[in-house]
Amino acid sequence: MPAEPGAQPAEVADPDLAPCAVTPAVELSAAERACLELAWQALLAGTAPIGAVVTDATGAIISTGRNAVDGTAHPPLVAGSLLAHAEVNALIWLRDGRERHADYRLVCSLEPCLMCAGAFRMAGLGALTFVGADPFNGATWLLTSDQYPGRRPVEIAGPRTDRAGRLAAGLVVAYQQLRRPDGTFIAALRKLRPDLLAAGAALIDAGLFERAGRREPWDQVAEPLLAAV
Question: Of 69, 84, 171, 181, which one has the greatest count of Cβ atoms within 10 A?
Answer without folding.
Answer: 171
